[in-house]
Write a structure and sequence with these properties.
By secondary structure, the chain is an alpha+beta fold. The protein folds into 2 domains: 3-108 and 150-213, no CATH class; 247-607 and 616-721, no CATH class. Helix content is 57%, strand content 6%. The protein contains 29 helices and 15 strands. The strands form 6 sheets. It has a 5-stranded antiparallel sheet with strand order 1-3-4-2-7. The chain has a two-stranded antiparallel ribbon with strand order 5-6. β10 (397-399) and β11 (405-407) form a beta hairpin. The two termini are 61 Å apart. One of its GO terms (cellular component) is plasma membrane. Keywords: Cell membrane, Glycoprotein, Membrane, Transmembrane, Transmembrane helix. Residues 1-21 are annotated as: Disordered.
Length: 863
């Protein structure tokens, strides 16, 4: 299989050997062209010749013969020319006739007229953005055109200057992949029409890989003047971290990788830009907490030796825990104030509005990209009608209608869906069980920490208390363990989700992605957020009161439900959020950058000793990692999970958007770097939006308003403080003096059960609740202040939700999804297409009539 498969001169073996020597000497293999230096390589197939498997050899022979029949030109590199001396490479070129034919079939839009609509590029204070801009030839490498679907019979209607460069490489590889996906590898007389497609040949091992070529090495321009070197431009102006403050060359990304990858980076860049505003406001709220540090009266009372130092609190666990002084929580109380202040309420409301602005402005940005990238009339469903090879293989039944196609019987489909649903529920239950295990760990370890620190907390508070408490030690260690469990479950469930999605046998790739998206996001939602939901909405809410405590698994377990310290559970939620969110982001970036680099370094170790001219372009790309069809899926999933962290629980940590902003600045360049340097060139694909992720983001945005309202009401101490200041201050003054004593209730320690009573003795102790004291006719029942606070909390939730949702819907109504200038351009383009096509047909008809008239005149003259 040496030499050319088509349009190659036949030659003897000796001539081929001589020609091979000349090629090595005169023609560098680091090229994207055939050996003739003219025909461009649009796609590459690789395989290892298995002499023991005649079936694979026959498939390749028939498949390649069928490719030649449809017009593709092939050239094969012998295994002796490869670095491992075991791999064949089949290079594929699509000539003009093939490209024109399938561009017509796929309705690919091409330019027919230069855009004549004046564009107002001048912006006020335009000079401010100059440092962030890229060179004009990188941002807009070609003029703006009006486009129309290509029609081969009317090729002279379009602006075709050079047929060889009319279709860009991304369009060429998309067309070739379309052909590869539909070409049969079984002879026609066999009658099995379903045996077709490069996907199935890759799955059964007939070919080892199939990929389009990068146009050059990423660190240097191609030596061939006919090569665009767009990969080098992308690396130089986009993938390097030193370009983190520069805008992204979205047009070049789209031109090189296709619209689907381009729309992802457009969304990621827009999301990062919008995070800047949230990060600024969040930082201001944090600074407000710092500036009002000295106005924190309740923390002063806790730390005061005459107030907090004399208040004895009830034990936080049975028997092992001793009584403790309130001022032992002085440090956590001050820390809590940084996030639990009036600014928190403002920031929670702001983020509810920010989310709406983000989604609405993204719709406008997306609409503009749809127009600029010729995706206005694109329907993804029409482009995904090709059945998945797995579906065709497993669905042997046939449905007789106007189009005979395989189908899955309803009984089998229902059984598969039920099994899939049961598997998902089982894994979600497994996550919840792991969370319960972590909670049990917190309860058991807290008792151990409390026992160890018992003497330190009561006798040596000035040495130990301000720095470490059982609550802090338990919270940090539990959060770290929870993060490790999350990462382990992630690795396991990724495979499970793919397995059960494969088991459902989705019909198209679009349906496959949607099903996998729902499963993975549902799992990730429970996996990442469940611990935060526990701390925010369950911890400290069902503890009972001294003498009648609630236990996790009943009194026999001796694991008493956790309490929040007088500083509240908000600081623990902040700790949990920081550890899980930061840990995931740091680990994700290391994994994304390091793993592909190590695998490529190991895979190309043999080729590193080869001269540059002998290390072929197809071998270089073959040694890189494959960017699979689910490559973008994991990138979206990572960012959507982060989006949940900065919206669902942002009321507990206003600096979350700032951490996300820093991460995303790095993420954009890490994704660009690995895509440009560590992965093979992805097959260009179209996508007019971010797909199902847009609906998921909208759902998270709505849920975030509810969760933040509940965090402020029930996790924060904001509402009890406001109720005390305005309604229960004893002197009628609007300040927080006396709040700590007011928020505590008394308990007679003599009423402790002997099995739960600590060894040491103290005076009547306090606990955090609003209950009548011992001796009162309603002792240990809730006071009226408790019900007033509960009513205030519910009223706050209702008011905040209604205000934020009203603003959200008003903003969504006020901001149109499609900008007015884009609507005008779309109408103008449609009008011009009709007008120019009409004029074209009229002119063509005139020419035909004039030719017919001259022919008749000539015939008459001859007669």
């Amino acid at each position: 299989m040496n030499g050319y498969h088509q349009q190659a001169p036949s030659s003897t073996g000796s001539f081929q050997q001589e020609q091979s020597v000349i090629d090595k000497q005169q023609h560098s293999k680091d090229s994207v062209f055939f050996r003739d230096g003219v025909r461009r390589i649009d796609f590459v197939l690789s395989y290892v010749d298995d002499k023991d498997c005649e079936k694979k050899q026959e498939r390749r022979k028939v498949y390649e013969a069928n490719l030649v029949k449809v017009g593709l030109e092939l050239e094969t590199e012998d295994k002796s020319e490869s670095e491992d001396e075991n791999t064949y490479f089949v290079k594929i070129h699509a000539p003009w006739e093939v490209l024109a034919t399938y561009a017509d079939v796929l309705k690919i839009k091409v330019p027919f007229k230069v855009n004549d609509i004046p564009e107002n590029k001048e912006m006020p204070m335009n000079w401010l953005s100059t440092p962030f801009r890229l060179p004009e030839h990188i941002m807009k490498p070609e003029p703006d055109y009006f486009t129309a679907p290509f029609n081969k019979s009317k090729s002279d209607f379009f602006l075709i200057n050079d047929k060889e460069t009319f279709f860009p490489p991304s369009t060429r590889n998309r067309i070739v992949y379309y052909i590869l996906s539909r070409c049969s590898y079984i002879k026609e007389e066999c009658g099995d029409k379903d045996k077709k497609g490069i996907k199935r040949l890759l799955n059964n091992g007939t070919y080892t890989s199939a990929f389009p070529l990068h146009d050059c090495r990423y660190w240097t321009r191609s030596k061939d003047a006919n090569c665009e070197s767009e990969r080098y431009n992308l690396y130089k102006h986009w993938a390097r971290f030193l370009c983190f403050f520069k805008e992204q060359p979205l047009n070049l990304i789209r031109k090189y990788y296709g619209e689907k990858i381009g729309i992802y980076f457009a969304w990621l860049g827009f999301y990062t830009e919008m995070l800047l505003f949230a990060a600024i406001v969040g930082t201001i709220c944090f600074i407000y907490g710092l500036l009002t540090y000295d106005d924190n009266e309740w923390s002063k009372e806790i730390c005061n030796e005459q107030i907090g130092g004399k208040i004895v609190m009830c034990p936080l666990c049975d028997k092992k825990c001793g009584y403790w002084k309130l001022n032992s929580t002085c440090n956590s109380s001050w820390q809590s104030h940084l996030f639990d202040n009036v600014g928190t309420v403002f920031f929670a409301i702001f983020m509810g509005i920010w989310v709406t602005l983000f989604l609405e402005f993204w719709k406008r940005r997306q609409a503009r990209l749809e127009y600029e990238w010729d995706l206005v009339d694109f329907e993804e469903e029409q482009q995904q009608l090709q059945l998945r090879p797995e579906y065709e293989t497993k669905c042997t039944n046939r449905k007789m209608n106007r189009i005979t196609q395989p189908y899955l019987p309803i009984t089998s489909k229902c059984a598969r869906i039920c099994l899939s649903g049961a598997t998902v529920l089982f894994w979600i239950s497994l996550i919840i069980a792991c969370i319960i295990g972590v909670i049990a760990y917190r309860l058991a370890v807290y008792a151990a920490f409390a026992s160890i620190m018992k003497d330190s907390l009561t006798n040596n508070l000035e040495v130990v208390g301000p720095y470490i408490t059982p609550q802090l030690a338990t919270s940090v260690t539990a959060s770290c363990i929870n993060f490790v469990i999350i990462m382990i479950l992630n690795l396991m469930y990724e495979r499970v989700a793919i397995w059960i999605t494969d088991m459902e046998i989705p019909k198209t790739h679009l349906e496959y992605e949607n099903k996998l998206t729902v499963k993975m996001f549902l799992f990730q939602f429970v996996n990442y957020y469940s611990s935060c939901f526990y701390v925010a909405f369950f911890k400290g809410k069902f503890v009972g009161y001294p003498g009648n405590y609630a236990y996790m698994f009943g009194k026999w377990s001796k694991l008493r439900n956790e309490e929040c310290d007088p500083g509240g559970c908000l600081i623990e939620l902040t700790t949990q959020l920081v550890i899980v969110m930061t840990g995931k982001q740091v680990w994700g970036n290391i994994q994304e950058a390091l793993v592909p680099w190590l695998m490529n370094w190991w895979g190309s170790r043999r080729a590193r000793s080869h001269p540059e001219t002998l290390y072929s372009r197809w071998e270089q790309d073959h040694d890189l990692q494959s960017f699979g069809q689910l490559g973008l899926f994991y990138e979206y999933l990572e960012m959507v999970i982060q989006f949940g962290f900065i919206t669902l629980f942002v009321a507990s940590f206003p600096l979350a958007p700032l951490l996300a902003l820093i991460n995303n600045i790095i993420e954009v360049r890490v994704d660009a770097w690995k895509l440009t340097t560590q992965f093979r060139r992805a097959v260009a694909a179209k996508a007019h939006s971010i797909g199902a992720w847009e609906e998921i983001l909208s759902g998270v945005a709505i849920l975030s308003v509810v969760t933040n309202a509940f965090i402020v009401a029930f996790t924060s101490d904001m509402i009890p403080r406001l109720v005390y200041m305005y309604a229960y201050h004893p002197k009628g003054e609007m300040n927080m003096k006396g709040y700590i004593k007011d928020s505590l209730s008394l308990f007679n320690i003599s009423e402790f059960q002997p099995a739960n009573r600590p060894d040491d003795e103290e005076n009547p102790s306090c606990y955090r609740d609003y209950r009548y004291p011992p001796g009162h006719v309603k002792q240990y029942t809730h006071t009226m202040q408790f019900w007033h606070i509960l009513a205030a909390k519910l009223a706050f939730i209702i008011i905040m939700e209604h205000v934020v949702f009203s603003v959200k819907f008003f903003v969504a109504w006020m901001i149109p999804d499609v900008p007015s200038d884009v609507k005008a351009r779309i109408k103008r383009e449609r009008y011009l297409v009709q007008e120019y096509l009409h004029n074209y047909e009229v002119e063509k008809l005139k020419i035909q009539l004039s030719q017919n008239g001259s022919d008749e005149t000539e015939v008459t003259a001859q007669m």
